[in-house]
Design goal:
Elements lengths: L6 E5 L5 E3 L2 H9 L4 E6 L6 E4 L22 H9 L1 E4 L5 E3 L2 H6 L5 E6 L4 E4 L1 H21 L4
Antiparallel strand pairs: 1-7, 2-6, 3-4, 3-5, 4-8, 7-8
Length: about 150
């Protein structure tokens, strides 16, 4: 299975339409899918997405019971906010207004591959998050004698 990798910045128009990067569309369409599944990140100020196939097994994590049972609250949160967004003929999706607000998107969106999924960030926010991550990695490598 091909992975989502690379970083791409695309325009978000006034209607909330954004082009999904061609390599990401290829991964999705290679699975026989015609849509993107997105949800707000549980932790970071971004959106997370993949093909809907990534989320099919998540449904089995939510018990169908009328009595109290052990619950998978992560699965419940993701499934509650998950949206399936169809790709149009130009490879665009329309982002819901609440998703645009969650990721603080304006006129551009940065798509960043994460292997099995991808994230959509506001460009300045991902630049700052990436630099902070880079500094943590460098510090850890130096501490472990790697750099």
């Amino acid at each position: 299975m091909k992975a989502f990798f690379g970083t791409f910045v695309n325009k978000v128009d006034a209607k909330g339409r954004v082009s999904v990067p061609a390599p990401f569309r290829a991964v999705i369409q290679g699975r026989g899918l015609h849509s993107v599944a997105l949800h707000p990140s549980l932790i970071e100020p971004c959106l997370e997405g993949a093909g809907f196939d990534r989320f099919e097994n998540l449904e089995s994590e939510i018990p169908d019971s009328f009595a109290p049972v052990k619950r998978n609250e992560i699965a419940e949160l993701v499934m509650g906010e998950l949206r399936e967004l169809l790709l149009d003929g130009d490879g665009r999706i329309v982002l819901p207004d609440e998703f645009i607000a969650k990721a603080n998107l304006k006129d551009q969106a940065t798509f960043i591959g994460q292997g099995k999924f991808f994230q959509i960030w506001e460009p300045v926010a991902i630049a700052a998050a990436t630099e902070a991550k880079r500094q943590r990695v460098i510090a850890a490598l130096k501490q472990n004698g790697g750099a």
